[in-house]
Write a structure and sequence with these properties.
149 residues, 3 helices, mainly alpha
């Protein structure tokens, strides 16, 4: 096999490997985009429904306490409650976003595995070539001296 054939074969395999990895990257990008869009749609729908429920509950509570001397206390307590609830939900959303899978984790894992396989392949070829040379040299030396090892 000539050097040009080996080089062509190696480049073809490298191209196929890169094409596969880019396809995996594209699939993960599509999956990530779909997951983000789905979460945003759900978040928007839930926010709208909860806002309307909250608005109606606030008006009902305000109207209930309006003729009493506790109307301002009721409004301040609702304000504190809504602020705490909003902060809690924001923290929960941030923690949930951090807990989810990292973007392109599978692509990164496959590329690391490729790098490790290439790193293991290089010393193996070198040591196999060196061992064959050593064995061949020892075999020649044994043949010339007439002893076997």
């Amino acid at each position: 096999m000539s050097l040009v054939q080996v080089l062509t074969d190696t480049l073809a395999k490298l191209g196929a490997l890169l094409a596969t990895r880019m396809e995996l990257f594209g699939l993960e990008a599509d999956e990530l985009r779909a997951r983000v869009v789905r979460r945003l749609i759900i978040l928007l729908a839930a926010s709208l429904c909860l806002f309307m429920a909250l608005l109606l509950a606030s008006f009902t509570l305000a109207l209930y306490f309006w003729p009493t001397p506790y109307r301002f206390l009721a409004l301040v307590l609702m304000l504190v409650f809504y602020a705490a609830l909003g902060a809690g939900l924001a923290i929960w959303l941030l923690l949930d976003m951090r807990k989810g899978p990292a973007a392109f984790a599978l692509t990164t894992q496959v590329l690391h595995a490729d790098a490790q396989a290439l790193a293991q392949l290089r010393p193996t070829k070198m040591s196999a070539h060196t061992d064959a040379g050593t064995t061949g040299h020892a075999g020649q030396q044994a043949a010339t001296t007439g002893t076997s090892s």
